[in-house]
Amino acid sequence: MLIILMLSTVYNGRYWVFFTDKGNQKGNISTQIERVAGLYPSITIERRMKAMGKPANRGDLPVYPPYIDSLKKLGFKPRYVSRWLNGVSGLLPEDMVNRIKKLPFVREVKRVATIGGGFPHIPKPLSYGKQETNIKLMSIDKLHNLGYSGKGVRIGVFDTGFEYGEGAHEALDMIHVIAKADFVFPDTIVHDGDTIIVPDTIVSYEQGEDYREGTYPNCYAPFCCQTDHGTMVLSILAGYAAGSFIGVAFGADYILAKTEQVYDREGHHVELKVEEDNWIRAMEWAESLGVDVVSSSVGYRDFQDTTGYSYADMDGRTALITIAAESAYARGVIVVNAMGNVSGDVPETSIVAPADG
């Protein structure tokens, strides 16, 4: 009897690999930067000129392809490439980590844990309904009375997913969504019945599924739907139902990114470090589309695999998500992030990344 034993590589770790430079790019650097700048829409260029005084810099140059090819030859399976971080994340056999760390063009290796429509003319005064106390507490009503509704502004929302349009709450019927993408499971949707847009920065992804109401019997959390949290956050910004519920910036254009996984397949709440990876991808994607403001009601400190960031790491320079947020800010994007609500076993502070930036 002839027995053939098939041995396959075991990919039991996901890593970020950061490079020392952008490689031996051919041609003049200034010419390359100009060429890259020409790929962005005019609205992105205008915002960058205001913030940076130039349409692009070295950070916008592509990651050097031969570096990635060298990693592939050692068994690395790239998942996402980041120009700003000058690195690539993906799957890597544990026994190859030290070998990759010794490559002359590798700076660092870090483990990643896995487990529309238009609005009517603004009436004066607006009837805010359930939002009246919140709106007037922040004097947003005064801005609305002056005619400011967010029109002409592109707002990105990074969260768990979103239910809007036909079949959703009436306040979410007329949201003007110009782009949307699911960074958790790129083969699924940001809301029921939606069409997925997979950003070209995603090299590959693993198959997945949405966890929708009724599919996880062990759910004990207050929200029993993947999209609940994101939908509520979106409504505060974009909602419009006169006399019932009106948001802060109901006239803005929205870019929606699903970056957060709420439950595992058993219905238990999870906090995975790969969600930080998703957020970074979403930020580069949204920035390339000309986003002006990003609202992110998620943040990270501790993860399911017991790894995470310490209080000392909350210095604005250590967490990868914070570095990405700072990179976006340097390009003229206003990043508004939740500070965090960690308590109990984290006595030092409740702050989470990227709010430490």
From TrEMBL:
<dbReference type="GO" id="GO:0004252">
    <property type="term" value="F:serine-type endopeptidase activity"/>
</dbReference>
<dbReference type="InterPro" id="IPR000209">
    <property type="entry name" value="Peptidase_S8/S53_dom"/>
</dbReference>
<feature type="domain" description="Peptidase S8/S53">
    <location>
        <begin position="150"/>
        <end position="354"/>
    </location>
</feature>
<dbReference type="GO" id="GO:0006508">
    <property type="term" value="P:proteolysis"/>
</dbReference>
<dbReference type="InterPro" id="IPR036852">
    <property type="entry name" value="Peptidase_S8/S53_dom_sf"/>
</dbReference>
<protein>
    <recommendedName>
        <fullName>Peptidase S8/S53 domain-containing protein</fullName>
    </recommendedName>
</protein>
<dbReference type="Pfam" id="PF00082">
    <property type="entry name" value="Peptidase_S8"/>
</dbReference>
<comment type="similarity">
    <text>Belongs to the peptidase S8 family.</text>
</comment>
<dbReference type="InterPro" id="IPR050131">
    <property type="entry name" value="Peptidase_S8_subtilisin-like"/>
</dbReference>
